[in-house]
User: Fold these one by one.
Assistant:
Number 1:
Amino acid sequence: MCRLSAITSSEYISPMENILSLETMKEGHDGSGLGLMLKDLGGPFKDLKDFPILSTICSNKGVEDLTAFMRSRGFAEKFSWEPAIKNVPGVERRDHYLVKVYDYPAEYRDKPKSEKEDLLMNTRLAIRKMGEPDGSIFAFSFYPDVLTLKEVGDPLQLGEFFNLDKSDIKSKIVLAQGRQNTNYAIYLYACHPFFIQGYGTMTNGENTAFVPIREFLMGRGNPGYMGYNSDSEVFTHIAHYVNRSLGYPLHYYKDVITPLKEKEIDTRSDAQAIRLLKRSLRPLCIDGPNCVIGFTPDGSVFMVQDAKKLRPGVVGGVPGKYGLMSEVCGLDSAVPQRDKSTDIFPMKYDMVIIAPGAREVTVWNQLHA
Amino acid sequence: MEPASRLDQNHKLSLKEFPYIIRWREDRCTRCGRCTAVCPVKAIEPAVNIQRTVTSEGSSPEPKVTRRLTHVVKQSTDIERYCIGCGTCALVCPTEAIFPEYNFQHKFYHFKNKGGIPYMRGGRRNDPSVSTLDKLKFTRISMLTDPALDAGRHEFRIRTLLGRNLSADHLPIKVEGDRLTVDPNVFVPPVREIYPIRIGSMSIGALSPHMWEGLAMGITYLNEVEGLPVVMCSGEGGMPPSILKSSAIKYFILQIASGYFGWDEIIHALPDMIEDPCAIEIKYGQGAKPGDGGLLQAYKVLGLISKIRGVPQFVDLASPPTHQTKYSIEEAVAKMITSMSMAWGFRVPVYPKISGTKTARAVLNNLARNPYAAALCIDGEDGGTGAAYNVSMDKMGHPIASNIRDCYLDLVKQGKQNELPLIAAGGVGKAGNLAANAAALIMLGASAVDIGKYIMQTAAGCFGDEYNRCNVCNLGKCPRGITTQDPKLYRRLDPDKVAERVVEVFKAADVELKKIFAPLGRSTELPIGMSDALGVGDKDIADRLQISYVC
Ligand code: SF4
Ligand code: SF4
């Protein structure tokens, strides 16, 4: 089972904290990959919050192609960052782990946010399309204040490889996932967390309903609903679809992916609406043992799971710092000073939402909403 | 030496030409006469034979010839009285002295066109080969990467939706604060939550009153006692007014077909109806006899039927192959769907049923653009019928598997796979594998499946099979009392026993569906279109259906 570690904090933290918590949750072989997604960035990115950040892995040729491409699209480079790679046995080093901050093309600077977001997504997709056939460029995210690092290997070793303990890369929200056991020839685009227009999520558990969900999403007319090298990518896109495209409040994500039974719906004051939703979005019911942890563009962080999840995730912490983990030992590592009796193990009807700035934890109960 | 009688028997048929040959054992037969009395087609009759015995007693041969008369059971070689292989004779024989045997070398079809009238029958396509549906298997088994579910203990929700599901962006939903509300002034099409296996259209004229009653009691019990929302379609020909006006009407889908039989009664009952029917099915075609209208032969148009249908007794009731209002697909479908919807104040889902065809996608795309179309039912070539020409049954139509798959994938392309449910019919449970066939069709993209012949076979012991056994449903001579209006015959069928079997069949299928869905890890929603769970050991089928080839 993949290990998930998310931390949301009012202070800037190092992603190394997440990697250490992943390490405590390790059970057996774990070389299949690490994904880190950082939001609300500090360090060198602290003053660049309004500018989109492109996170990539490029070959030497990829860097040239990318530079030419971004120039042709009118993106002016403002800042560039690469982790100071330290060679570690067992991790195969690629040419460049390139993170670049751009200014919008002139004609987009005054456009509404949604148009800018569409531009960023379409640009990322175009880069992906350009670099995917020969593996010269992998583009993971292109959005203001979000940075993604991914590589195949053991998370702790990768932490060393990216030199994260010494790096000044910090953020207030970190999602980290370590793939465990079941994947060998891992493809970088199959590595969690996944990102689309401000939404980042990671999941554990196999997604049994993957094919119908993927087919449904691909029919929504959004070019960003693509990829699906991992069956978990759909969870990110569902969150985006429900919250951004349809404009429903975040907690309806729970109603969509794990809908109530007909009788239970009657207990809700918005029964009529969710009955309609349940029918219209029937193919998005995940129907599998999954735990989803993610963030939304406003910096809310959430955890939600299906009733079939045998080992539920856990949320706990202190005001100003909360961890959302797949195992309680990960939480012990990340926020040891918390009162453990207040830990939350979200039950089948629960969705835990932590407000931006790690201020407040809400357990939204689907049955009693 | 010249024979005493002519040897020239040309223009007569030998038993070898017949599909079933009666094996009769003289040594066992007690001459009770039951078999000849019960034979629905008079294929056997008592006859007298002269038996010549030569005996010799004493030390030197002194042959003595004796002739005596013996009674035998003789099979007719009259093509009009061919043995249908039903086996009713064997059923009633107290000494197991008689049974029909299939004759693989028969030339029955060569001769069954006397008077220039092609062979007509009931039943299904006479093709005993393994169907595509029966070749499909479920190859995605969760174990360690994903916990398999316990079919016996886990809670499963095996339900489907019948009706037009609006896409989320067309729902009249508004965001108010952090809640969603519904605008009550906007029309939302009716949607029913039903069991994904339905009893397909079989009319009250095609079925005997006892059979129909048994099925109706069975589904009512399933709904009201077992909590399984199984629904049944009336077929063409209306319904008894007592049911139309009862609350049980909600378990029924009313069918309107090109003959509009029975609709006078239905329209008259409308003001007194206390519940809405589950749905309205507009029949444009039938898998067993594509391009042909419904047919109830005169033999079956007796008292009750003539009353419900509003026609005289003993006349052939042939529905035209198309609806008379049909000038174009747009007009036919849109007009009928809208007018049927209007009759019930747009509270009842209305959908068409067509026979499996290469052109199904054209119909589908027309429906996809009609916001009132509630579903599309496609009836494949293995569907059954009460009466049709053999050529229509055996040679016309389209297999259901690829038809449903193509339609589903077409909807996927348009992103409308959840909006317009597809209902698959024709050959479900052909070889007895009801749940497996249903699950396979669901994974290919069907939202529900219909059964007909299967329920006749399992609930009432219908003799029919793909070797043309029995299949005289059209003649009103059904030896089981299933498809006849002759009280002498349908008295044999106990409606309570039929109902009991209907309940057993659905309960068993429900367990089997769970046994299939549990290892796939699915329990909350029906795995519609979960094609990655399917595999087949035939590369061509795998390619055609876009599922995995396994060996
Ligand atoms: S099998 Fe049926 S049709 Fe044939 S002789 Fe027996 S009863 Fe008659
Ligand atoms: S038993 Fe009745 S219903 Fe079955 S094939 Fe024979 S005639 Fe038809």
Number 2:
Amino acid sequence: MIIQFYVNGAKRQVDAPPMKRLLDLLREDLRLTGTKEGCGEGECGACSVIVDGEVINSCLVPACQIEGTEMITVEGLAKDGRLDPLQQAFLECGGAQCGICTPGMLIAARALLDTCARPTRDQIKEAIAGNLCRCTGYVKIIDAIEQAARAA
Amino acid sequence: MAVGQNVYRKDGHEKLTGAARYVDDAALDRMLVGKTIRSHIARGRIKAITFDPAYDWSRVIRADYRDIPGKNYVALIENDQPLLAESEVRHCEEPILLIAAESKLLVEEAARHIHISYEELSPLLTIEESLACAEIIYGTDNIIKRFLIGRGDIDEGFEQADRIIEGEYRVPHQEQLYIEPQGMIAIPRGEAMTVMGSMQCPYYVHKAIKQLFNLSDEQAIVIQTTTGGGFGGKEDYPSVIAAHAALLAYKARRPVKLIYDRAEDIAATPKRHPGIIRHRTGVRRDGRMVASEIDIVFDGGAYVTLTPVVLSRGAIHSLGPYRCDNVRIHARAVATNTPPNGAFRGFGAPQVAFAYEMHMEKIAAEMGIDPLELRRINMLREGDITATGQQLKWSVGAEEVLSEAVERSAYREKRRSISEANRAVQAAGAEDNKRRGIGLSFFLHGAGFTGSGESKMKARAGVEINAEGRPRILSGSTEIGQGTRTIFCQIVADELGASFADVDMEEPDTSRVPDSGPTVASRTCMIVGRVVQLAAREVKEKLKRFVAERYAAPEVELIEGNFVAGGKRLAALSEMAREYIAQFGELRAYAEYASPPDIEWDEENYSGDAYPVYSWGAEVAEVEVDMDTYEVRVHKITVAQDIGRAIHPILAEGQIEGGTLQAVGYGLLEELVWDRGRIINNRLTNYIIPTSLDTPEMETIIVEKQYPHGPFGAKGVGELPMNGAAPAIAAAVLHATGAFINEIPVTPERLQSALEDS
């Protein structure tokens, strides 16, 4: 089926099977490979993207459900070569190590800061509870999100 | 200076913008998708393999062991693990066949049309079953490897003791759970084979591919792609996946991508070795240990793989950071019909650390000595001698880390006030069914290969400077998230007086970088970092000699990117590099690792300097136990680690925090469930690792007792944090509830049964 939607502000159109996973559609059809697969069953959050303001696991969403939506992926966070304050804070605080969970973390954090400008540490922990990281122990990720919120 | 500064990591920008390319992000023309067909039984003979005759096999590439041009073994310590099973299978998930097709959908469909029948044999699935020898599956007694470490006179020691205290401790499998599943792409090019993918050790893969395909050094090319975590899990197994992809590519004459999904990754790849560790300790009334007998048994799984070296590290670390003049350590690894266990951060040490630290708690309780005091009485200090007879010559931060962790956490004060509060709650029979507890652990970790490993390995690395004056590091050490690329650049920048921004590292590609040894064993910074520093020094000397000659200056110095003689600036580094290259073609130097002087190791008797130096750690955990549900929550961890020198403090803290949380998972949450040799919770829905909500508040203290032979004084940092959390948490649970934990993870079920026993 033909599906039309917006990704990172640009209008896109793809011809894909209706039950194709949004994750595969992004990675294969649009070659937006920043969105990662860690488990394929909605547990790790590496495939998180923002759809109409909500964070979703793109491995659990079929292509047919995204018609007409507006989507943000990690590739859409930096604008005109300028890093998003969250990306900058991750760089400064050491929020990324191996980097595989980072796109999903940034997406979950972006959605949090879009709705809650000054979150507490507990609110930050809650917001990224669906995003697994095995490298950092989360400490520097939480620090980075706090710093980005302060900087905004 | 770049060393000691929190410069931005070199791979930061690409990882934060989604631009970093991991193996699954690559799309090549004509690339097929591969799949591994595995054993469903733990032990047996393959009777028949049937390919459904009604199915259209023309679209599918099939390969089995007969297609392997060279020897059917995955090169590692011993040639015992076949790349593909021939007639017998020795564990569930053992690879038997390989298939490839145009799409994932098609390859999955084809897999459903393959049927394998077996003659099943009775498997050995646990350490106890293997030791009982009802079946013999390895050698004559199922023992893969045995070590004996002895010092002093153990009988004499026990005679001097006022009390003999015994304990048995059990530790489970643990899954590395890097978030990027394993995967490889193989590309055939004429006689040559290129493989690229997620890995820690390009030269391990290189060696395996060469042997399997009869290739020369040049014909096998291995390239590491951006790697989404390893933790040891990508030390040996990538050789298997690379060779599987390569065999399919070899048959298809097309590129083949072989990516595991999470379920396959957990089910088939190596885990941390489970173990049973027994301590029998002779103690004097004043708390001094005078005899220590330790028996270790690890489950190696179905093939040798890395088990002998894991066992060796476990045995050497099994007395912990303690002094005892009469020691006997007997360590064995047994074979079972389970997937081979392998490398996981700590490599045998976290297992024995749980045992020695819980045993210290037990001794403290039985002798009526404060647990902190008991550790101070027995702790190793500079000049002391370890279980292998090694005299600690330098960089012993034991005292400092213990003091820092205790002071910063207010351990003594909290221990007292919590004890009083718990007693009050109990006495009042209050409704509040929460108990708090605080416990500590004290540990060490030897950095680099064990014994003569590093002097045999002779790690190599190089540095070249291009015509623009930009230094480039040539090393097979990999960036897997821990920061190799960044810290190597910091080391080289400072050695050359160049700017950090100008230095970078060559992509790890065996056709372009030398063998620096594997990226394991907390050796990357301390061992390879040192070699990189020496290579930089060598290239600098080359250029200094050149400049001295050119300007007829007797003494030339390189200061902040400029050559200077007698206080006068002669020329910029970039200028001289350009001239040198114009004249000689290239400006490059290599260096090789040499052990520090006076380091001696006796492989035969397992005695001497087991490691050139140790890193030291102490950790305090504060927990709350719900006495209705037996759930344990860790509120705070204070951890102090002596790592010699933090080349990059934020990266070093990141190692400590991340390793500590993995150890919280080991101690509290992570448990694999087995059914007839098969893992049944091989998914992220039921193998539980810590989330952000499980993260305690962490206070990290870096102690810097510089190591004279490390780059800028640095020692190893990667594995040490894995040793501390499990025993610290169990000690805190003991303090909170009185339940003595001798097996992890401390699940509510296990805590309930420990409480019933106590």
Number 3:
Amino acid sequence: MALEHLFKTVKERFNRDEKGESQAVSSKKHDIPDNLLFKCPRCRTSTYMEEFEKNRKICGICNYHSRLTWQERLLMTADRDSFFEFDSKMVSLNPIGFPDYEEKIAGLSNKCKTNEAVVTGECTILGYKVVVGVMDSYFMMASMGSVVGEKITRAFEYAAMRKLPVILFTASGGARMQEGIISLMQMAKTSGAIAKHNQAGQLYVTVLTDPTTGGVTASFASLGDIIIAEPKALIGFAGRRVIQDTIKQQLPDDFQSAESLQDNGFVDMIVNRKKLRKILSRILQMHGYIKEEGAL
Amino acid sequence: MSKQNLNVTERIELIRNKNRPTVNDYIPLIFKNFMEFHGDRHYGDDHAIIGGIATIKDVAVTVIAQVKGRNIDENKRSNFSMPHPEGYRKALRLAKQAEKFHRPVICLVDTPGAFCGIEAEERGQGQAIAQNLMEFMMLKVPIISIVLGEGGSGGALALAVCDELAMLENAMYSVISPRGFASILWKDPSREMEAAGLMKITAEDLLGFGVCERIIPEPAGGAHNDSAVTAENISEYLCEALEKFKKVDVERLLSERYNKFRKIGMYDFMQEEQI
Ligand SMILES: [Zn+2]
């Protein structure tokens, strides 16, 4: 898959004919089509999509960092043309014979331009070489099945062998129930691979993005040497509704927010998307990693 | 003792039977000198998981067990065997203690899942489970886990990263309860039994997946019909497993444990033209 292409399409979407759309908006103020507006799920304010996209999909009112596709995330994170994807052709089988599972995966693969809910590879960030993984919540809520588990495990094993740091952008609804017990086992498998990477003395940074929940929170997302979260991201083990059903009471609004997790001691720092590349590169530098030759 | 080959619905009924033996029944029957140790040294003492040291055939072991209650009072105390983070942290503390003193660890799994509540979240339920998965993977003593009844999701897995997993004949082990599965994937919790049939959660299914290594037989009609016989079967298995792992050096033990989980996953690679 030629990533420059993807980057180009994403860039085009980010800068998409600003004049044309904003004119359309201003001429019909009372009847704005939904796709021209972003309604923030946190503060419920609507802003122009175009403004929101130019602002890296951050709500200009409350600073909620909205969900990104894997392409958008890589575009914002990796140095231009530096990304090399691992295991791009790995696809899931259907361990319990869940009805129409293969069809569902195939449909999402087409739509999301990736075979699974995580994309892994190597790239540089301001010149520092890292192994990177990006989970895409548009792919079956980035649930973890065989392929997510295997790709992440391979990424850590590779990084341990090559003495490279790993940076994972997590997002997930949890284990991929459609794969039954096999999906649960991926939690143990990935945690084991992190243990190996850890023993190799290498750095692992997790960036928790909205939403990171379930079996991913209860495995690799919580095991970073440094845990970064994006503002207003939902992060938790159990789903809000499950908890509400269990305890039969209302939950506070900021429950399971990145900010409350930081207050409770589970997140090192909350970082604005616009500063993330700089912060990551500084962390990498301070852990003794060296810039690639010829990097800026 | 022949296998009874009950269907999944009959097995679910058996493990929900209120007379099904729990760790409170089994521990005195299987072990001698069980001494309970309390607390996680961070927050509190979770009664959903008990732990301590005991001997089995004169071998000192660390026992960590999830506690289903036998009546409403016991269940209130043990929160229906749904642990909070401090339960998992107590388990980890005792496992590390076992490592220091070269004792094998025996985990008895019996939980619907980790507790879903405000305080459990605030104290880091996900982090506590994750930490156990990573630490148990590296623990330098043998770990043997046995699913007694219900092995529910990450809450069970946190005590099931082990060198060998055994299941009682009618036990089940699943990524989510069949009811949760039906409710989330089909928006219809009443299709629970249909989900149970599809999910492949019986001991035989898990043996087939390479998740479980051994099935421990139950007496005719289920474990509750003769808890002494069930305990004897568990005990026999444990002695055999302890004997086997005693001879394995640490490096091999850890690499085989890693590979036991490393190889689980069902995937393929697409051909070029399909992309
Ligand atoms: Zn907002």
Number 4:
Amino acid sequence: MTQSRRQFLKSSGALIISFSAAPWNALSAQDQGQFGTHPSHIDPGKLDSWLAVGSDGVATAYTGKCDFGQGIFTAQSQLVAEELCVPLARVKLIQCDTSITPDQGTTSGSQSTPTNFNSQSLALAAATAREALLNLAAKKLVEPAEQLTVANGVITGKTGRAVKYEELIGNRHFNLSLSPTAKRRSVAAWTVLGKPVPSLDRPALMTGQFEFVHNIRVPGMLHGRVVRPPEMGATLAHVDDQSVRNVRGLVKVVVRKDFVGVVAETQYAAAVAACQLAVQWNPGPELPPQQNFFDYLQKQPSRDVLGVDSGDVDAQLSSVGSVIRAKYTYPYQMHGSVGTSCAVADVKADSATVWSATQSAYPTRSIIAKLLNMPLDKIRVIFVRGSGCYGLNGADAVSFDAAILSQAVGKPVRLQFSRQDEMMWENLGAACVVEHRARLTKDGIAAWDREDWVASRGSRPGYNQPGNVITGMLLGYDPEPIEPRSAKAPAGKLRNGSNIVPSYFAGCVGGSCQGDGTIRSERALTHSVRSPFFTGPLRSPLRIQNTFANECFMDELCKLAKADPVAFRLQHLKNSRVIGVLKAAASASNWQARPSPRTDTSRAQTVTGRGIACVAYEGDNGYAALVAEVEVDLQTGTVRPKRFVAALDCGPISNPDGLRNQTEGGILQGMSRALVEEVIWDKKRITSVDWETYSSLYLDYEMPAVETVFVTPTDVPATGAGETAITLVPAVIGNAIFDATGVRLRDLPFTPARVKAALVEVEHRA
Amino acid sequence: MQEITLKVNGKRHVLKIDPETPLLFVLNDELGLCGPRFGCGMAQCGACTVIMRGQVVRSCVMPVSAVGQDEVTTLEGLGTLEQPHPIQQAFIEEGAAQCGFCLSGVILTAKATLDANPDASDQEIRDALGGVLCRCFVHSRMLRAIRKYAETRRA
Ligand code: FES
Ligand code: FES
């Protein structure tokens, strides 16, 4: 793995890749690039930045969107095979390497498919290449390009003469720009894309051959461990080097401001030294108590943003009709990767290479340059897959830590976090409280006001915010500040990236109503509040929190209207794609129209119920509806989901098997989050630091059946899909519990104790 | 430092090593094996699972000196890329992975359970997997793959 770029390119069959002559810093003065990121030295406008055909006919493609187990490696390989008309086996995909792949920012937010599978980037590059090859063949065969056919990397003329790609371009540059008019192959003609191609990594994974970033070994490599503070906000007072003098194999104790780590010859020696090192810390401030954290959150100064505001909700909510209110809370949750985060850094005097599982190779390079005080172009970040991350786990922080340790010892260092390092300091999924008020008339929902408070601190470090994660903070950088300010009137077009605006709102901004629903008296306001803990994107970030509150409250309105939850939703929807998935989920689950809660339950110990919810993910990045059937044990309060039925519309599907796998995994992960997951803390620190203090559903849990149906309108672009179904899970389980028991639970997770307490309370009131 | 002889996946290795070193670190760092992986280091997740004497062992908490004469089998000790073991084949066919980090725990625990009791029921298999964690939540596909293997094994 330490091969030079030249060797790397040789082995990747793409000797011919080169970079535009302008040095990166000549470009950096320009505005942001087309990916909303900084332009890099690999010009994304040039075909050669994306694709190369070798003399052996192998097509090497370079992508800035990488695979952590979500299947995008296979899907992108299919995409290239499809557009270029070569067999899948002849595509070689290189992911996220700052020396050779284009800068596509971060692989996140369900953006890989919309970015690379529609009419730009990788898809456009492959289409441009096919068109260019046809033109070259037309010249060679002396026939018009229109009458040539292409298959398996061979172009054949009417006369029957044929020429292979490698004969036309093998090992040479295209020297072309991406052609915005290059035609994508039509969905109807697909032979590789759209097929359930088994994920290409499977044989290596199942036989233990797959190399994770954890398996990178570099000659002369040492092992590191970090020694984190014992509590939030603690600062370093003193490190006693003598305390580890007897640890055999110890190389160095590394201290930089509040950052402490050890480097040793073996992992074991590093672990022992990290445990044994005597460090004194100055205590941090006391944390807000967990018992009334949400009240605390609502009282803090905040940065406010209005999604929509028709200006009349207050008046509407004080006029006649039934007004109801409800408050929902969502706890901090963890990414909790099975493998703790790991990176290998080889920092030399004048250059550095870092093997990292980051979702953000280029931004990570920028931060490392800053932390090492080294020019950007001397640093190479190579993505190597880690344990599934589900968002910003410790992958970025561990890459920074490894680089600092390696620089301190002048040797390559491998660093893997302990379980506690990982959990105590990760960027948690945000805690959030949502308040709703709405007025119902005989014609439906007349007005709806919703307001949320989100705990936020840090997030992705991006290109220049090291303080957004723990390492940066220890080195003296602050997280991106949250300047308190009141909300401006919404302007421009409706933005609903965090799904604060429920699907039933008309979504009128600046005179144009781009929401998915019909409610015109509407307000959606969000308050960002400084969190005592680091936060960051966790699968369906804020979308799952907001959708839990929005879709459960919609069910409360259905109840008030004594209406069937599907029919009442349909009455307030206008977006045909949301309507499409809602109807599809209802029909696939054999939904019986009736109001909730059910009234036919016997006084048995176990009752059952069903719930439904729908969402336009991020406003327009995938549509999903989900039905849950659950069983509730009235004695113990235990909730057991029995069946989920999902309907998804994500436009043309690149790989149905991959999508099913993502949907099933997402739903079950959502179930774990809805039923058991919650970060716990005391006065000083997060106390969820391992799998006994943070709950997850293990493999012995009897999983419900998951059925998935796809709804695919014609002529729509491809959207994200890996986060849509999970977004709905807490809401549908909450709605199903209500249907079964008549009890509305508004606080996640739905633990047996919490469910039981709510059941008892209702019984007492009755 | 102590000289220790280890039998792993049919091969003998003689190592000079601190006898307290967890077996997992030896497998990863001295023998270059990728199958067993560090997940928690405290016997809570199963990512480091290996088989010894037909039993699953969490190699993250076993000092290498405690291995003794017993042969250690890791995930790569079952089958090869070209010729996967039938349980690995079943996982390949069912597509029972996402990131795959957890697979040593899942596959080896299921195999050891079915080796000991070929007629294990779904419930018994699930019980055996009680301490194994998969955060990608591929549970259903994994159970399907295990059932498939159990059936081919019986046939
Ligand atoms: S790493 Fe051994 S059980 Fe988790
Ligand atoms: S497949 Fe990712 S943890 Fe199991």
